[in-house]
Amino acid sequence: MFRLNLKIALRNLWRNKGITAINVGGLAIALAAFILVMMYFTYETSFDKSNPNYKNIYVVGVCYPEFKTNYIAAPFAKAIKQNFPEVESTGLIKEGSFELTIKNGKNTLFTKNILAVDYNAAKILNIDPNGGLIKPAGDVERLTYLSTESMKTLFPNKKDNKPETVGFGASNWGITGTIAGVIKNNLHSNFTFDGVSVASKLGEGDNYDMNDYSIYIQLKQGANLVNLEQKITELYRTELLKGKTNRKAINELKGISTFLDPLSNQHLRPKAGNDAAYKILIALSILGILILVIACINFTNLSIAQAAKRAKEVGVKKVMGAFRFQLTTQFLVEIFMQCFAATILALILAELVLPTFNNLFQVQLSIWNLDSGLFWQLPLILFVITFIAGVYPALVLSSFKPALVLKGNFSTSKQSYLLRNGLLIFQFSIAVVFIISLFIINSQLKYMRNQDLGFTANQVIYIKNLTLFNNPAKFGSVSFDPLREKMLKIPGVKSATVASFIPGGTNGINSYKANGIKANIDFVNVDFDYFETLDIKLKEGRFFSNVFKTDTLNSAVINESAVAKYGIKYPIGQIITGSGIDYKIVGVIKDFKSQGFESAIQPTIYTIKDPFGSHKIQIMLKIEDNKMADALAALKTQWPQINPKDGEDFRYEFLDELYGKLFKKQEQLQSVFLAAALLTIFIAILGLFAFAKYITNSRIKEIAVRKILGASDIQIFKLINNSFFLMVLLANVISWPIAYILTKKWLETFAYRIDLPVLPFITSGLITILLTVITVSIQARKAVKANPVDALKYE
């Protein structure tokens, strides 16, 4: 019996190979997209899950009135451990703030992130060097390990794990150190590095004004998180209040609280950070599911539409004694065969598309990776889609009454007719949402690219540098003036400056007081020509100038947002206090979007002198466009003489490219929606094509009679298109409010955005209606051109 049913299934699939190909092909394309999304979702949500303490690790963050941060004072780690028995361990971690050059002879390594951790943090975060984690002997000693990749760069022929002596910085620095060994860099972790420096203790001698570290804690099983969070806040306020007597300062500290953020949040949605990656992952997952649902709808719709062709077969089998359960099983097996073929084809398509997908999302996914979970997820998906796409058609086919179908009554129920139309409307509704979303995403990205940023990043290069140019000089610092003079002598170099931060990166945050208001605002330490190099517009007052000697001591420039923050009516000449200095405001610049379009422009102060600020190491040059290549070549050749302390390693990036990275996530979303819109339209049109073919064939005698009675070709086309036109029109009406809500919420994630346009809604309607008319008309043409006599002879 099984062999007979199998033969019937194969013959039926082959006899309707056009419909079968559409079913299998559409499902395979959707499955391939879903497989990629599922792999990416699994990858993104499993960061650090290899850590055995994954569920009990939290980062301690601070919530100020203006912002949240994971940076906190080192002494607080010890205070937490001493006061709360439910905390098993506390550790300190500090990421590298600049690139460090490490040399072994002619081999040079530019490290982007040397992670500094104390011994407890290394244990908490499962940072384990080859040969095991060793606690440094004293409070000062540190053990530095390099990642496998970094060690290969410096010692390509190294086979053992013995310590090695290397040079730090430029060749003329003369600083050497020891690399204790190799450590595997877990790229599937929030803590990636070129190397790790392990200390017995970190932050010794720091006070509560120095928020330079991240504190990670490991809780004991069963700890009350909410209660502990409240107690840590109370402890933090107590520590900050020590020695404070000023009532106003005490009241201000009451507005500060702490929070505990799970390790599981750190990659996608940290409380003190951007959750754009999480939103894109959710959007991508929903798109993947919807695309698969559309393909399943196609499958269901076409299977129901084919019911009439199987009616006599069902009738005969029931007369011969077949039960409904047997028939349902038979049809489910046929559907499973198609789903299985679609799955195999989907794996092939996914493998072909995977390199492009990996490049878009900057990941290294592999279908054949046993750790990806695909090998148990795929069989589950196969059975689920077989059930979703096949159960209803199988029940419809097995429900035919033998007496009726053997007399020629093949019509399906009114419910089946409504279901088919409802599913088609649902398909096009999803497609319309994707089309509208794509147009609006494109409009927002176009707005972001064309909007005036308030500064000019074009023709500005950022030189990677290790020399400190703070003025007045800190330990190891030098004046930037001699370098500026040398660089300005190179043809094409229009201006040169140095700062602690560059547009597109993060700024420092410090507390400043003006007009009786104290607030945490952004600060940037700069040098002369900073505003001129970036073409930042002056609103009132002046920029820093060598003409005014006080500019290097106590002058400040603030932006419009800072003026509004402090409510200063006439800012020029007013005093703003911070870092132990009373700064005199000499200029106000117009706001510029240094952090992109998602974040509002922050109140910012610019100073030349800030004893507690960050090091000024970010060199920026403005170069004439037609002399860019020659100027870069001259800089590379002359760099050892221009900047002797930094040495022979000249490295640079274009500032506009660095700033452009702020748009990366949204550009990924644009690519995803483009692919999703094309896929949904393709699958929907594929289903519509096959469905229109079935409807046209079922009405071929009606069309023949109408033609004999004098109906024109246009009238026949109109007749066939009418029902499909109404369904697509209804799909647009349903999808427009949904698309409006979704895109409005997406646009609200931007501080600077377009007004929601009407044109994408109208355009989506025109596109779907036009595609529907073309698709249905192609099928209708065969019926219209057919000879009525032949059609009336058709059985």
Topology:
Layout: H1 2-15, H2 17-44, E1 57-63, E2 68-69, H3 75-83, E3 87-94, E4 100-104, E5 107-111, E6 114-118, H4 119-124, E7 142-147, H5 148-154, E8 164-168, E9 175-183, E10 195-199, E11 214-219, H6 225-241, H7 247-253, E12 257-262, H8 276-305, H9 307-319, H10 324-361, H11 374-398, H12 402-405, H13 414-450, E13 460-464, H14 481-488, E14 493-499, E15 508-514, E16 517-525, H15 530-533, E17 538-541, E18 555-559, H16 560-566, E19 575-578, E20 581-589, E21 604-607, E22 618-623, H17 628-642, E23 651-654, H18 655-660, H19 664-698, H20 700-708, H21 713-747, H22 759-785, H23 788-793
Parallel strand pairs: 6-10, 7-9, 16-21, 18-20
Antiparallel strand pairs: 1-2, 1-11, 1-12, 3-6, 3-11, 4-5, 4-8, 7-10, 8-9, 13-22, 13-23, 14-22, 15-16, 17-20, 18-21, 19-20
Helix pairs in contact: 1-2, 1-10, 2-8, 2-10, 2-19, 8-11, 8-13, 8-19, 9-11, 10-11, 13-19, 13-21, 13-22, 19-22, 21-22
